Amino acid sequence: MATSSINVPSAGPVAGSRSFLSKLRSGDEIARLITFLFAASVVLITLLLIYELWIDSALPRHKFGLSFFFTRIWDPIAENFGALPFIYGTLVTAGVALALAVPLGIGAAIFLAELAPQKLSDPLQFFIDLLAAVPSVIYGLLGVFIVIPMMRQWIQPALKSSLGFLPLFQGPAYGVGFFTAGIVLAIMVIPYIISVSREVLLSVPRDQREAALALGSTRWESTWKIVVPFARTGIMGSIFLAMARALGETVAVSMVIGNTPTISSSLLSPGYSIAAVIANEFAEATGDMHTAALIELGLVLFLLTFILNGLARLLMLLTTQRGSGTAQA
Amino acid sequence: MLTMTGICALVAVSVLFFILGYFVYNGGVSINWDFFTKLPVPVGETGGGMANAIVGSAKLLLLASLIGVPIGFFGGIYLAEFSGNKVAFVVRYAADLLNGVPSIVIGIFAFALVVHPFKRFSTIAGAFALGLMMIPITLRNTEEFLHGVPRALREGSMALGAGKWTTIMRVVVPAAYRGIMTAILLALARVAGETAPLLFTALGNQYWSPGWNQPTASLPVVIYNYALSPYEDWHRQAWAAGLVLLGLILMVNIVARVILSRGIAVPRS
Amino acid sequence: MKRIAGMLVVVLALGGMVWAQSSLLINGAGATFPAPIYSKWFDQYHKASGSQFNYQSVGSGAGIKQVTEGTVDFGASDGPMNDDQIKAYRTKNGAGILHFPTVLGAVVPTYNIPGVSGALNFTPEALSGIFLGRISKWNDPAIAGANKGVNLPGNDIVVIHRSDGSGTTYIWTDYLSKVNSDWKDKVGKGASVNWPVGLGGKGNEGVTGLIKQTPNAIGYVELIYAAQNKVPYGVVKNASGAFVKADLASVTEAAAAAVKTMPEDFRVSITNAPGKTAYPISSFTWLLIPEKFKDTAKRDAIKGFVKWAITDGQGDVEGLSYAKLPKEIVEKELKAINKIQ
Lengths: 329, 269, 341
Known about the structure:
Chain A is mainly alpha-helical. Chain A is built from 13 helices and two strands. Chain A is 70% helix and 1% strand. In chain A, strand 1 (74-75) and strand 2 form a beta hairpin. In chain A, helix 7 packs antiparallel against helix 10 and helix 10 (232-248) runs antiparallel to helix 13 (288-322). Chain B is an all-alpha fold. Chain B has helices at residues 2-28, 33-37, 51-82, 85-100, 103-118, 123-148, 151-159, 164-192, 196-199, 219-227, 232-262. Classes of the chains: A mainly alpha, B mainly alpha, C alpha/beta.
């Protein structure tokens, strides 16, 4: 809805063109100016944040350049820093989380949007929204006291004995590790996938469904074969959104990932993520290079989430454009 | 197929109840009067409470709202009532960007801006970080709810001779009041549980934190530290604190959403 | 709206005033190694003098950094600041920083081996081999050889180290560097090293917690953490060839040689000390106090505390398994306190 800037002249002589100062005397211009300043401050703060990240990471950027992204060593004594183990850990845990959360989330969203009666769907969605509000440290607590022992005693040994021929599931069963972090993250991002996918599915125009039903398809066929593909760009958007959330998770991950900068093909291995290493080492990074290297990691994380969020928004935009009635091929 | 997707939904929802149940079971036993009124005792001893963490979190949230809410509220008014499309796009984009910044990076920013120059950890630094995180939620929601107020209300007010600002403050905002309040509540609930930004801004404190310029304990950070410790008593307290935190956040969320659903039909957050 | 804003301002002002009127608050941060005794000391000193010492046990590395940055009033570390760090402090703050030893403690190898509840014997070769990743099973001859009669399982060893910058790590790696030239070359000594193997835990607390929960784990923690949490810990072979358990006598013995050669600035390493009954992984732990204070109230409170801690406070240390400071060192320190301006 377009807002028109209605300039209501104050009581007094109606002037054709008014100077800035006289405009200022009218309360509305002041209000406009002040609220503009508040709005502008949002932009300024964001720019300042990016600037700080860039400037404070200058040392390692100049010293290591692009090799920062490909070095595996993280040695504070020798002042040799490489981001690869952390990028790897961040991406792997997010990957595991999505692999678990996406099927569950989309399935639940389909149920809530298409198959469930309204009376059931709304309360369930309410609970899912509540789940999204649970803070990270709570998941961390559950991770430490429930998930880790479960992983160590049952799940990891079971995986090793059944799927141990795959390099994915080899190595000792510590309890902590990529897989554990992935599970905790999966629980954290499911609500986002469900909420967004459900909205996208709901926004698919009715005539699509009705046309399918009119042609004789079953409820499920119309859902799975017509509605879901129609909404797929939006669903992709929800996945990117969830991934961006998973990448930035700090506390819950650092409590269950093992805090070891390793790159391993095994999901049972302990690892490290960008956010976790910053949380653990920032307060004590002696030496400017160490601190700046951590800030550079923060910059990398910021860029990753920036790209993912951007892609998500793009996909959402495409979905809404599509939703305006074009026929599905 | 119905059953499969239904099971998916059931699993997702049951996680919430599982979490709640587990916390009530584990944390419920440790909630007593001491927990709310006493300070922590020396390392390794049993007993004591989290009074300073609870008050610390309250102070942080109070100050954070003072930082985040005005910027979001008035910025939202600008977007909804005054701005042109280009400026609105830039501001919205910046707000979304800020929203997507991982909380640990916000912590780094707050450290660089508030802790480092003034050479101290403080409630202000922590509140600054949390306030930043509140801005995008408040801004976007204020804008949306103001948009949702029918044009007729504005035009009617102006037809009666009210100036633009008067219209906004006396007519439009009150009409959108419910939505904006719930947005603020939801923003508060979101930052109440944040731990990462506080780790190197507010740091921590075994005692009461006097004024606003000293380090302070906060519920999420205390839970984090206690959970990672080897002391059974601290684990017990961490569960209790988690229950309190979880309970408060869920309650605020429920209240906010109920208010929202009872109000005028305005766009959802 | 205006009313709400008005009320808010009143509440804030009141809140700020009320809370600002409490007693002197001094902020410190650093080592987790002495955290139990510091925590007790600060609590007692608060009852005696009214000053509140807010000590955050965030690790020695953080302690050094925060006191250098000036974001805390004092630091604490079990790895003394090296010359570069001291120089950096002087450059940043215009004056020097002083080390004050407060207690003697021991770092012990703690473990969680199913079926083994007693104290294992560890040789320096065994410890360095385990932490280098070369010895990977509990029944390896290097370990079993010193533990005849103990049924060691063939399970994989889970090594646990610190994930944060730690003085305890400094002490541990200092010891390993002295007894194993491979370790010295490959890894070296420091508060944060490039660990060949293992999981990371945060603080002495985190490592103890991880060991308790992880079967087949081995880690290194300060003695009191193992004792308080009833985690078995091993005895270590010292430089004279005897297997020594960490306790008050053996730790005090380790410091005995250093007493005579204590440098002016109190920075000394007593790992792998000579002496038949010396525990080889012992160390002092230091408070890092700036030489110059702008705030005289804080300065006097800190000076008062240090004086109390190295004299009256020593009565509490043995109850928490730390060893008292040797008398000669206390005398030197009392003189050095006057350096704090």
